[in-house]
Design a protein that fits this description.
40% of the residues are buried. The chain has a 7-stranded mixed β-sheet with strand order 6-5-4-7-8-10-9. Strands 1-3-2 form a 3-stranded mixed β-sheet. Strand 5, helix 6 (130-141) and strand 6 (150-153) form a beta-alpha-beta unit. It has helices at 7-12, 32-38, 77-88, 90-93, 109-116, 130-141, 160-163, 186-195, 212-224, and strands at residues 2-3, 50-57, 60-67, 99-103, 120-125, 150-153, 173-177, 202-208, 225-233, 238-245. The protein contains 9 helices and 10 strands. With 248 residues, it is α/β, with parallel strands linked by helices. It binds S-adenosylmethionine. S-adenosylmethionine binds next to helix 3. Residues 71-72, 75-76, 78-79, 104-106, 125-126, 129, 154-156, 177-179, 181, 183, 185 line the site of S-adenosylmethionine (SAM). This is Methyltransferase 21C, AARS1 lysine. InterPro entries: Methyltransf_16, SAM-dependent_MTases_sf. It comes from Marmota marmota marmota (Alpine marmot). Keywords: Methyltransferase, S-adenosyl-L-methionine, Transferase.
Length: 248
């Protein structure tokens, strides 16, 4: 089993991070652990809620820092299903150097696995979970992926053209896991998926189906995307869909 750098190994590296986590030489010492700590803007108020959860995908051990205090700081069931699919279909999906954006990335497991599989990944979410997301991404991809994943704020439906101008972007894949649940932003979520899709962009959306509103969202998704059910995971009631934007 191949493993990314341990904390101890990382702290020995000649610097690869700046304080803002963007890469390049560190400001003072070679202590990457302290740089990683400084990135953690998401700080649970109940420290007992922090856990380190372990996953194995693409031949790597992945350690994710989670907290039950935020929806966006926990790995949800559709994330592991999507990771399994990416791992099993990496060649068919042609993930090497593929340009990928993940929406609602949460603690980052899907983006980490896509990065390990060779993709150029931008992981996005609400501002308050980006610190933990950045921490997990760096911890699990530093020095063991061809492309260091990026983290960017993306609030569904908000300032999309300003922050993600359609003329300038082309993603091969937009990934989304468990972004559909009981919340008030489903129309904005769909709008965001559409905005990020160009000719050739494939949306891979995995979701645990719980509520009637989840199926209502699926109906709306099918109205704007040519939709294929790629996989079902009956043990978790997760379904994985492929969508390509209808252009007529
Ligand atoms: C149920 S969690 C799923 C997290 C991760 N994708 C997973 O499957 O483990 C939903 C994610 O969507 C994000 N989210 C919720 N509402 C959002 C919004 N309006 N704009 C952007 N992200 C949002 C949350 O912060 C959270 O990370």
């Amino acid at each position: 089993m191949d493993v990314c750098l341990s904390s101890a190994q990382q702290s020995l590296l000649p610097g690869a991070l700046q304080e803002d986590g963007t890469g390049g030489p560190p400001g003072d010492a070679n202590n990457i652990e302290s740089s990683l700590r400084s990135l953690q803007k998401f700080v649970p108020t109940d420290y007992a809620s922090y856990t380190q959860e372990h996953y194995q995908f693409a031949g790597k051990k992945i350690v994710i820092q989670e907290s039950i205090e935020s929806y966006g700081a926990v790995v949800w069931p559709a994330a592991t299903a999507l990771c399994q699919y990416l791992e099993e279909h990496q060649e068919e999906l042609n993930l090497q150097d593929a340009k990928i954006l993940e929406i609602g990335a949460g603690p980052g497991l899907v983006s980490i696995v896509a990065s390990i599989l060779g993709a150029q990944v931008t992981a996005t979410d609400l501002p308050d979970v980006l610190g933990n997301l950045q921490y997990n991404l760096l911890k699990n991809t530093l020095k063991c992926t061809a492309h260091l994943p990026e983290v960017k704020e993306l609030v569904w439906g908000q300032d999309l053209e300003q922050n993600f101008p359609r003329a300038a972007l082309h993603y091969d894949y937009v990934l989304a896991s468990d972004v559909v649940y009981h919340h008030y932003f489903l129309d904005k979520l769909l709008l965001t998926m559409v905005h990020l899709s160009q000719q050739g962009t494939v949306v891979l959306w995995a979701n645990k189906f719980r509520f009637s509103t989840d199926y209502e969202f699926l109906d709306k998704f099918k109205q704007v995307f040519d939709t294929t059910l790629l996989a079902e995971y009956p043990e978790s009631t997760v379904k994985l869909f492929k969508g390509t934007l209808k252009w007529d």
